[in-house]
Amino acid sequence: MELRLLVTFEKVATVLSFTRAAAELQYAQSSVTGQIRALESSLGAELFDRLGSRIRLTEAGERLLPYARQMIELSEEARLAVTGTQEPAGTLTVGTMESLTSYRLPPLLELFHHRYPKVRLALRTTIGDETRQALRQGTYDLGFLMEEETTHAGLETEVLAVEPLALVAAPGHPLAGKPVTTADLVRRPLLATEPGCAYRDLFERELTALAPVVDFMEFGTIEATKRAAAAGLGMSLLPEVTVAAELAEGSLVRLPWEPPFRLCTQLAWRAGKRLPAHARLFLEQARRLVSEEA
């Protein structure tokens, strides 16, 4: 198997688009298609299912992907060993989430952009189960998780920081400045991000212990949820880092309720995976910068 074919296969498998892979690799789309067909021919197996304008990996493609990544990583390490080049290089696909990308990761991303320009970061926004599954399958190299400190089968995790949560509402909310119990919350309008977000699911678990049905007005993003809370539509439990500016300026207030659970920002990778040098560098810098920001 030619390495260049594996590089093209890995890129298509990561982005699941021939067009996007061609753009990122700076190839003509016909070249990408031809290279994938050549690789399939040499292996005697189809690697992608073509579903109209969409594609997905076949079982053979899923089995090949982790081997392709290992061969690409070893090739890069061999090149660096022979040339003596010390500058980190390579592509790193990282699963993340809105709250971290917007509020925790900018210093880390800025560092890599300026100091390590040959490390190409590909951020993929997913949460919870999707991130963990992508790590197990080798689709992601690393993944950020914001959840209770938990072990997961097939993954190694490292806690980077404890993530404080804040129950927020508009100034003048009836519960502002008063002692608040969990029972007080089930009778009030509640705002939340989508299901699958760990802090929303944990919050819902606490509330449903007191009421069989808890209704949330759902918003697609943290920004939309904050705006709704500031407009007086209800209260919402969000990571403190995402509402710090609004609390400081007074457009939101913190209600005096402390969650009975603890959330942590963690970095995860597939158990037994030999992290390449640029992935180890990312992990080291994440330890330093994310911890400092928390």
Write the layout of secondary structure elements.
Elements: H1 3-15, H2 18-25, H3 29-43, E1 48-51, E2 54-57, H4 59-83, E3 90-96, H5 98-103, H6 106-115, E4 119-125, H7 129-137, E5 142-147, E6 155-162, E7 165-169, H8 182-185, E8 190-192, H9 198-208, E9 216-218, H10 222-230, E10 236-239, H11 240-249, E11 253-254, E12 264-270, H12 277-293
Parallel strand pairs: 3-4, 3-5, 8-9
Antiparallel strand pairs: 1-2, 5-12, 6-12, 7-10, 7-11
Helix pairs in contact: 1-2, 1-3, 1-4, 2-3
Write a concise synopsis of the structure shown.
The protein is an alpha/beta fold. Helices cover 47% and strands 20% of the residues.
Structure notes:
The strands form 4 sheets. The chain has a 5-stranded mixed β-sheet with strand order 4-3-5-12-6. The mean pLDDT is 90. The longest helix is centred in the first third of the chain and has 25 residues, at 59-83. The radius of gyration is 22 Å and the shape is elongated. By secondary structure, the protein is an alpha/beta fold. It contains 12 helices and 12 strands.
